[in-house]
Design goal:
Keywords: ATP-binding, Cell membrane, Membrane, Nucleotide-binding, Translocase, Transport
GO cellular component, one term: membrane
Helix content: 25-40%
CATH superfamily: P-loop containing nucleotide triphosphate hydrolases
Bound molecules: adenosine-5'-triphosphate
Distance between the termini: 103 Å
Number of strands: 10
CATH topology: Rossmann fold
Largest sheet: 6 strands, mixed
Protein name: Phosphonate ABC transporter ATP-binding protein
Pfam families: ABC_tran
Radius of gyration: 28 Å
InterPro entries: AAA+_ATPase, ABC_transporter-like_ATP-bd, ABC_transporter-like_CS, ABC_transpr_PhnC, MetN_ABC_transporter-like, P-loop_NTPase
Amino acid sequence: MTPTDAPAVQIADLGKTYPGAAGPALTGVSLSVARGEIVVLLGLSGSGKSTLLRHIDGLETPTAGTVTSLGQPVAQLRGRELRELRGKIGFIFQQFELVGPLTVLENVLTGSLSTLAGPRVGIWMYPKALRRKALEHLDRVGLLERAYQRADTLSGGQQQRVAIARALMQDPEILLADEPVASLDPESSSQVMGLIREIAAERGLTVVCSLHQVDLALGWGDRIVGLRAGEVVLDTTTDGLTKDQVMEIYGRVAVSTSELTAIEEELAEAREQVLATELRRNAAAERLAQDATNEEPA
Ligand SMILES: Nc1ncnc2c1ncn2[C@@H]1O[C@H](COP(=O)(O)OP(=O)(O)OP(=O)(O)O)[C@@H](O)[C@H]1O
């Protein structure tokens, strides 16, 4: 395998148990994501999607197994090495994580902070080249005319586009997105996902994105990885994949008809036993009452 063929992310037998947790958040997860691939993580709340994403840029440390991102063994990196890796991995979140009172442009500029020595307060504290780059990214996400507006005056969809522009300031090779459209309406959701896909194609970005919406995932991703209770239960390209197959991840159609019949028979048997016990109890109570009547003095 030549260096260019090397996967963007290689996860081997990853396990994670949070301190004090009753059970593991991830178990035996193995996954290889090629450069330029667009992968959707699907699964119910609590299935481990965020935990998996957070291991890719070293925000979590594995309990077992390894994660290699852009050829680097993530858990072994410290200090500058870890910062350098994170500099190549952009992250966008459900709640956008913008600084509301700051202007849109300033929010985008904060995406370049890891490349600068020391903090920056105000747009004019950033080098001109970075200001120009931030404006170009805002133009790309269709928000150039909003550059000097407060971030918290924008709609949810617009704020997520600002967050994308901010992530682009890092010139990332990988983009991680943790339910980026969970708080958006369907129209804004497809606009934001469409934009991510276009930008990923333009830049050859690798994208790993968790989503809740199966339809969106099917139309948007190249590949779907389904998680259930911390384990990979589906890993397939989206070509020809049906919604029913995907829904099995959620356990809604995971029970077959024969299993359902068996469960129903078991329930019917249990109901009969309860009924028989109740009948016996009633009979015993009647006998006691009868005995008491018989013993009463004439
Ligand atoms: N910091 C933490 N400490 C302890 N347990 C955690 C922590 N973060 C997550 N968990 C637990 O790990 C499991 C997986 O959580 P995770 O957030 O990765 O799931 P998720 O699929 O992203 O869920 P959601 O869709 O709700 O964001 C859950 O049982 C959760 O309660």
